Structure formats: C-alpha cells, structure tokens
Amino acid sequence: MPKILRLHLICLYRLTTITAAIFCQTVQAAEYIRNESPQPATAKDLTVSIDHAFTERPLSERFLLSNVKDYLADQPGFWSEAKVNFELRSYLFRRRNSSIYKPEAYVIGGRSSFESGWWHNFGVGLAYYNSTELNADDPGTGLLGPDQHDINVWGEANLRYRFTGTPLEGSVLKLGRQTLNLPFINKHDIRQVPASHEAYTLSRVDTGNLRYIVGHITEFKDYDNDKFVDMADAAGATGEDEGVSIVGARRKFTNGTTIGAATYYGWDTFNTFFTEGTYHADLSEKIDMRLSVQFTDQRSVGDELIGDFDSHQVAGKASFGWRGAMITFGGSVVDDNAGIMKPWGGSPSYLSIQRLDFDRAGEKSALLGFSYNTAYFSSLGLSSYVNIAHGWDAEDPLTGVSLPDRTEYDLTVDYKPPQGFLEGLWIRARFNYIDTDGDSDEVHDFRLIINYTLPFI
User: Fold this and answer.
1) Regarding the domain with residue range 3-455, which homologous superfamily does it belong to in the CATH classification?
2) What is the pTM of this model?
C-alpha cells in the first residue's frame, strides 16, 4: 500500500474513532462562523454565511449585577436597556510547520463592551479588545501584533440611530467602528480578538423576512493587529485610501428556503459578488436534509491597484440527519484564472475549515463530515466535530505550474454548560493535521481556547 494512502487511512481511522467515542457533531459552516459558538444539535439549526450575515445575536439575559439592572429599570431607556459584558478569553496555540518553524504563544485578554439602550432613537456602542502575552516564542501565531506586541485597541466605537414610524421601521444606522458579519467582510474571530471595521451602514437584521444592509467601509483592523488601515491598503494597494461600498440582502420563505446576495465594490481594487441559497426539509419523521449552494465572482475594477484579474468559485453542500446521526458532503471548484481573495475577513466557503480555505486558482476540493449527537450529551454541554477535506488540481495562475494536492484533518471538542454556575464558560480544544503531496514535514496545530462571558448588566 502506498505510504501516502496508508497515512490517510490511519489519520481517517483515528479521527473517526475518537469522534465517535465522544458523540461528535459535524461542522456545517465556514470557519469564521464556527468560532462564534459551538455547533448546533440539528440540521434545521445549521447556519450558512448569508443567514449568519442577517441574524442578530442577542446578548445574554443572565446578569451578574441583577440588583443594578433592577435599579436601572426605572431610568431612561438609554440606561435601562444598556448592556455591559466582559468576554474573557485565554488562548494556547502551538503550530508545527516544519522541524524548524514551531511558533507557540499563550495569551489572555478578551473583549469588554458597553451597548446603550435607546434615547430618542439614538444609542452608542463601545468595545475594547485586549491580548496580553503570557508566553510567546516565534511570531506567526496570530495571537499578538506583528512584532509580538500586546494588542490593545478600541475595536468598536459607534453612534447608532434606530428608525421607527417610517418605511425604514426596524432599520439601524450605525456610524464608526463596528463589527460586521458579512461573507468576506466579518469579525474573522479565529484568534484572541476579532477583526473590526470603520464603516457607515444602514441595516435591518433582526426583523422581517426581507433583511438588508447598505453602506461604505473605509478602514479595517485584522485579528492580529491593533491598527486600522484603509481598505485598499489592507487589500495590497500600499498607501492607497480607497474604501469599499456594500449592498446585501436576504429573503426567507415559509417553505424553509433562504436566498441572499451581497456585492462589495472596492474602489480601484476589486469587486466581489456573492450569492447563496439554502433549503431544509423533513424527508420523513426521522430523516431531515439541508441543501446549500453558493457562488462567488471576483474581478478587478477601476485603476486595478492590485492587478488585473478575475475569478469565481462554486460550492455546494448536503447534510442528512437520521436519529441523531448526520453525514455531510461538500464540494468546491475555483476558476483557474486566480485564487479567491479575502483581505477583509474570513471566507464563506463550505470548504473553509480550521486552517485551509481550498480556494487556490483552479483548485477542486471535497469535504466529508461525520456526526452523531444525542440530547443527553447536549444537556451536558458536550459536542464535537470532525472534518476531512482534500484539494487537488490547483495551479499558479501566472505560470500555470501545478501546485501540490493537500488534505486537512480537523477535530474540535467543545464543552459549554447550558445552565448552572458554569453557564457562560466555553472550553474548546482543536487539532488539525495537513498532508501536502511531496512534503515530508509534519504540519499540524493544537489550540486550546477558554472563553468565559460575564454579563454584568
């Protein structure tokens, strides 16, 4: 048996055995979404990128200072509806790219936020991000700044206006630093602190079957930095200050279908168009199914400050559940003119997993996921998932030279008690292994993330 095939079978056996032993739950979303919460228990609750973009995630109603909250109940809405949260996080990261390059870091910190209620339809939002080094060796973990400095930044600072009694009922105008959840433009919260943007947006994301966002984004701060830079600069046009104009919407239908699309026009850099549809159905009393498909088109525009290019990606996914067991198949094809660019957030692709996105020029890829979950394990706060993805036929778009095929194996285990004195705790352990054809180096990651949310008021 060839050595590469034998290694693949060994890794597959180990991952599926471990996962079955702890009653795993298959991942169903892009990597930037999976990092915001443990995986849901049913196919019906699986989230795709376009749904995630237009769904408001409410803050916790578990208040540590409930007496203060009760006192504020008689105050104006600006204070009575205010939220103060401390989201503590510690992150241990170990990567092995070769026998020489072995970056490691252990940091603590998190996000402290204040979100006011409404006063004459006005409100404010503030959030401070911190990542403090406890131990760090080589750079490259993404937990600290470019020169291994601690991260300290006001990642969010915005003024809000809520429309009432007009055709824009339920819409919110938000001006300033903020987080977005759009495909390609999002928090990309895969390390210690999230990415954020300087933007001016009008959106409706928490009411109605038709939800939308329009706006303009001027600056971007990535998860491994505390500096905001112009959007064009972040895309590779050094020293340029052009921004990105955005339009997006999603429509939900009564039969379980959702369809949405978004376009981002990067002035003098490139335009991205993304669309996605998803459908859920109960095939029988015990079998359900979720089908999803997405399409991405990218092309340079205007002065083409980062070069002349165009590309597209098509991806699909099918999940089938039966008595707590679930199997998922996914696939993706990228045009051979260029790879997919994502300088302002995480990729929405179904093949975007723990480390690789499988979106190189010409790359074809396939994903296989397994799961088995019961109400008993969910009640204990336990869940896990495994992904196996393989990419082939990628090539250098400039020379046409073939690039090596790659296979990634991922395992994630979550513990998040749903209630009791440990509510708010989330412990996540993650491991991935990458096998690249022709590369004898052992490439793998280990990550241990401990989150604890303290909703004060």
Assistant:
1) Porin (2.40.160.10)
2) 0.89
